[in-house]
Design a protein that fits this description.
With 126 residues, this protein is an all-beta fold. The protein is built from no helices and eleven strands. β4 and β5 form a beta hairpin.
Length: 126
């Protein structure tokens, strides 16, 4: 089981940037793919980005591709989401999640993730 704690959310103006961090503990972090998801008010939680266990395989939702970058530092048990050119529609609670299978590339499906953080709020507004 992986314990996950997100941080780095906040209020930012349109066009601004934020970097979200996710600290992991409790297991062999480096063996698990990681994902970022988000949930806007009144909407279902959706996939944002994922990164494979080794960091060499990434995937992004079309709405964030080219603006967001997912990365990981296995030595520090950390996953990051760099968010640039933020838009009001990026406003949501952002969650990181750990895949349930070792040594996978992850998935866009929430069912592939076993452990979730508590979320961090990102608000994009002028």
């Amino acid at each position: 089981q992986v314990q996950l704690v997100e941080s780095g959310g906040g209020l930012v103006q349109p066009g601004g940037s934020l970097r979200l961090s996710c600290a992991a503990s409790g297991t062999i972090f480096s063996g698990y793919a990681m994902g970022w998801f988000r949930q806007a008010p009144g909407k279902e939680r959706e996939f944002v980005a994922r990164i494979g266990w080794s960091g060499g395989n990434t995937d992004y939702a079309g709405s964030v591709k080219g603006r967001f970058t997912i990365s990981r530092d296995n030595a520090k048990n950390m996953v990051y989401l760099q968010m640039n050119s933020l838009k009001p529609e990026d406003t949501a609670v952002y969650y990181c999640a750990a895949a349930s299978s070792l040594y996978s590339y992850g998935s866009r499906s929430q069912q592939a993730y076993n452990d979730w953080g508590q979320g961090t709020q990102v608000t994009v507004s002028s």
